[in-house]
Amino acid sequence: MTAVEHAPAAANRGWFNSKIFAKLAIRLGAFAAFAGILIYFALTARGFTSSYNLINVVEQSTILGFLAFAMTVVFIGTGTDVQKGGIDLSIAANAGLCAAVYAVMMREGYGNFVAIPAAVGTGMVIGFFNGLAVVTLKIMPLLGTLAVMNIAAGLELTLTENTVVPVQSDLMNVLAFGRFLGVSTLAWCLIIGSALLIWAIHFSRIGLRLYAVGGHIEAARAAGIRTGAYIYGAYIFSGFMAGVASILIVSRLSSSTPGTGLMLLPILAAALLGTVFSRRFIPTIGGTLLAALFIGFLANGFQLLGISSYWVSGVQGALILLVVTVTSFAKKH
Amino acid sequence: MHHTSKFSRRTTVKAIALATTMLAVSFPAMAQDKPLEGKTVGVTVIGTDHHWDLMAYRGQVDRLKELGAEVIALDAGRNDQTQISQIQTLIAQKPDAIIEQLGNLDVLNPWLQRIRQADIPLFTVDTSTPHAINNTTSDNYSIGAQLALQMVNDMGAEGKVAVFNGFYSVPVCKIRYDQLKYVLESYPNIEVIEPELRDVIPNTVQQAYSDVTDILTQYGADSGLKSVWACWDVPMIGATQAIEAAGRTDVKTYGVDGSPEYVEMVATADSPAGAVVAQQPYEIGQRAADNVAAYLNGEDVTPFTFVPAVLITKDNAAETAKDFLPKKD
C-alpha cells in the first residue's frame, strides 16, 4: 500500500496536493469530531468534566485499551488491510481463556506468583498458535485466528464449565479499588502501559522494523529483516497482552466470567478507529489510545445524558463503517 | 386489522391505568401524588433479553416515572464489564437511589458495597445481598420447594432427573437449586444425573435442546430418566422440544419464571412440559419502585418484599395459566 503511494505522486503534482489536502482534512476532521463530541458532553452532561468522572472513563477504558493495543501491534506487523493483511480474531477469547486459567488456579490454591505467569504464558502459547497458523502453515489470518479463537473459547468453557469462578486476593483489591495520587490503579496501568508501548513501537529499533515488515514485507525481507519472526512476535505479543488484560478483567469483576469473547467488536472498533488519528492512516499506539478513550467517553457521555445505552453499540458500528470507508477512500485516491 | 389492534391496545392501556389507580389507592405510601418528584433513581440490569428480565425492568422504569422520578435506566446487554462500568458511572452521577436487578453476585457485591459507601440507598430486584436495603423478589425458597415436590410426585418418588446448574452464582438460582437438593434428601430413590448440565446465555434454547437430546440418547426409555429441571424456564423450552422431537413420553420438564411460551407448553395436555412456577415480574419491578418511594419519604422498608408466584401444573393449568399465556392482539 505504501509503495503505490509514491510512484504516481510525482507525475501529477496538483492531484498529489489535493490528495494531501484530503488526508489532512480527514485527519483534522477526526480530531475535530472527537473534540467536538467531548465539548458537547462537557457543556450538556452533568458531571462529565469532574475529575472523578474523567478518571473513571480512563479506568473503564484500560482493559479495552490493552486488548486494542495488541490488535494494533498485529495490524502494524502484518499490514492494515483486513482482507489481505493480518488480524487477531482470537484476542478476546484468548483473554477469556487466560482469565479462566488465572481464576481456576487461584481457586485451586496456587498463589499469584504461579497463577499470573500461568495466565500470561497461556496467552503467549495461544499467540504462538496464531503465528504457527499464519506464518508457518500460511493460512489466511482471518481464518487461522478464527480457528484459534474457537480453540481458546472451547478451552475456557472446559476449564470453567461456563460458570463464574470467583477470585479473592489482595492484589485483586489493589488493582480494582486501589488509588495512587488520586488516580485509580487501573488508570495508572493504562497510562504506564501506553507510555511503554509508544516507546517500544514508535521509537525502538524493534518497533520500526515491525512497521517495515507490515508496510512492505518484500522490501523488509530484502533489507535483511527476518519477517517471519516479527510476525510470530506480533501474534505472541498479542497473546501476552491478552494475558495481562485478563488479570485486569478478573480484578475488575472479582471473578472470571463467561462472555469476555464479546469484547472482540469494541477491540476491532478501537484499533480501526485509531488509524484516523495518524498521519498516514496507519495503526499507531497513540491513535488506538485515543480511539479506546473515545469509545469510553461515548458510553459515559450517553449515560450521563440519559441516552439509551442501546445506542452505544449502534454508534460504534457506524463509526467502524465510516472509518473504514473514509480511510480506504483516502488511501486509494 | 389495524383498527382492532389499535382498539385492543387502547383497552389494555385503560386497564393498566385502572389497575395502577387501584394500586395507588391501596398503598399508603402513595398518598402523595408524585412522591418521587424531583428525585433521580438509577436502574441497572444485567440484561433484558428474556421475558422475566424485560418485564421486571419495565415494571421498575414505568412505575418510577409514574411516581414522578427521573430515571437513569441502564441495560448492560448481558455483559458484566459493561454493567460494572455503568454502575461506576452511576455512582458518580449521585442519584437519590439505585435499583439493581439480577446478575452475578460474585461480580456485583464489591460494587454494590461501593454504592452504599457512597451513601446511595440501594434496592435490588431478585438479588439477595447484605448491601441492599430491600430485595423485591418472589419467595424463591417456596418456589424451589414447590417445584421440587411437584416433580417428586410426578416421578412417583423414584427415577433419574437431569439438572441444569449453570447459574449457581445467581442468588435466586442458588436458592431454588438448594431447595431442590433439600427436598431430594427425603427421596433417596431419585438420582440426579452426574455430571450436571450447564445452561447458558445466550443460545439458551438451542444449547438446552442439544444437551437434552444427548441425555435422551444416553438414557433410553428403560433408564429411569423421568425429569429435566432448571432454575428458570427458558432452557426448558429447548428441553421440552427435544423430548417431543425424540418422541419420548416418559420424561417431563420443570422450570421457573412463567415465560409465555413455556406456560403454553405446560398448559398443552400432551406436551412433555410438566410444571412451571410463574412469577409476576412486572409487579416485582413496580413493588421495587414503590419501596424506593416509601424509603425516600421516610417510611420503614423491610429487608425483603415477596410478590406471589403461582405453581402451574398439567392438572391446574385450566385455571392458573390464563394470565401467563402469550398475549394475543
TrEMBL record, chain A:
InterPro entries: ABC_transp_permease
Major location category of this protein: membrane
Any GO CC annotation of this UniProt entry: plasma membrane
Compartment(s) of residence: Cell membrane
Alphabetic keyword roster: Cell inner membrane, Cell membrane, Membrane, Transmembrane, Transmembrane helix, Transport
MF annotations from Gene Ontology: transmembrane transporter activity
Coiled coil: none
Database matches in PANTHER family: ABC TRANSPORTER PERMEASE PROTEIN YPHD-RELATED, ABC TRANSPORTER PERMEASE PROTEIN YPHD-RELATED-RELATED
Name of the protein in its database record: ABC transporter permease
Species this chain originates from: Pseudohoeflea suaedae
Lineage: Bacteria, Pseudomonadati, Pseudomonadota, Alphaproteobacteria, Hyphomicrobiales
